[in-house]
From TrEMBL:
Functional pathway: Carbohydrate metabolism; Carbohydrate degradation
Organism whose genome encodes this protein: Propionispira arboris
UniProt cross-references to InterPro entries, sorted A to Z: ATPase_NBD, Hexokinase, Hexokinase_C, Hexokinase_N
Similarity remark: Belongs to the hexokinase family.
Keyword annotations: ATP-binding, Glycolysis, Kinase, Nucleotide-binding, Transferase
Gene Ontology cellular component list: cytosol
Known catalytic reactions: D-fructose + ATP = D-fructose 6-phosphate + ADP + H(+)
Entry's Gene Ontology BP terms: glucose metabolic process; glycolytic process; intracellular glucose homeostasis
Protein's recorded name: Hexokinase
Residue ranges annotated for the Hexokinase N-terminal domain, each copy included: 6-203
Amino acid sequence: MNKQKFQSMIDEFTVNQEELQQISAAFRRDIEMGLVDEQTSSLRMLKSYVGLPAGDEQGEFLALDFGGTNIRVLRIKLHGHGQFEILKKVAKPLRVQGIYDFIDAQAKAEDLFDFIAGLVDEAIDENHEQEFLLGHTFSFPSEQTNLYNAKLIIWTKEFATKGVEGQVVNDLLSEALVRNGVGNVRPTAVINDTVAVLLAAAYKQSSTYIGSIYATGHNTCYLEPYKGEAKARMIINLESGAFNKIAPNTYDKILDEQSEKPNEQRLEKMVSGRYLGVLFGLVIANGFGASNKSYDFTSIDLSAILSDETTALDDVKKIMEVKLERTILQEECEWVRALAEAIVVRSARLVAATFAGIIWHLDGDTVRKQHIAVDGSLYEKMPLCVESIQKALYDILGEQASALDTVLENGGSGLGAAIASAIEPVT
């Protein structure tokens, strides 16, 4: 790798202030077009059928967190004033090698939901007298017509259980609860995990109108006020990873062509943890003259590279020599670290640009003091992410960015589901 080549690769991942502002404006336009006709926008604009909590909700509620192969049921007591207590937590995998498997193609819906009903029964300590309302974070593609009614469109994440696609998941759960003698538990709400983040954060802190997941995947939701319209305020799930009004660079295009679903999820492929290591591998292959090779890097590798503060960059050298199977010079280690920084910083700046686009939609030219809730490993653990988001917000919004702060909300899937069952649905 020579210095000129290194700089050209850095430039590919550099997003300047003017470009950021243009991306924010395009994101705002996609929101506003999507509110009129979602077919005209790259954002899906999915209704959640729920608004924000008042913060004074009280009582015992159940939360089912169903987003992957590990499933959780929590019994949560809301005390009001943003305070809550987890009374019990039950968590089990849906697949144990050689013992049971509720997610493969041989499994049936009844088996899966009977297993979940058993976890619910354990969470309430087999109390079949008291009525419990249950909120359900269900992180799979669903068609939803109200807060209760979410119909699974298609399984993802290697799930293949028969008899669930095309069905209302709360109906399947309710039937299983009755079959297992737990009819005193009543499922009332199904929400997306991103919506859960916003609900949980807004319960703890007022003036929180945006929730985001910034991890292996990426998505954002916000509270739509329907200004000037006789509609109740509602959280809109943007499915913002699909945003496509943004120019991909050379490496983005290669990654997209090689991905499972080309021409889809453009923003997510530029910012999320699932893809950052892949982008880095493509850049490194080109930089070291090995474009015909595929280097297997992950976001964890990028985090380790950016965390190396030794003078000789010992960790960078160790990681790269294992991956490339060759000796790495000190100068090359410095270039490698700078490339990792450019990829991560671009990711954070693009995410910030979408936040600013939502702020412009909500507030126009006068930004209110507010919080943006973010959950996810990149935001929580990746070096440079938080400060790069803050700097980008100032680049876009100027001094008005001082009214904003981003806050970590890493318990949203459970608490948010409980809150969804505690508040009135929006129609």
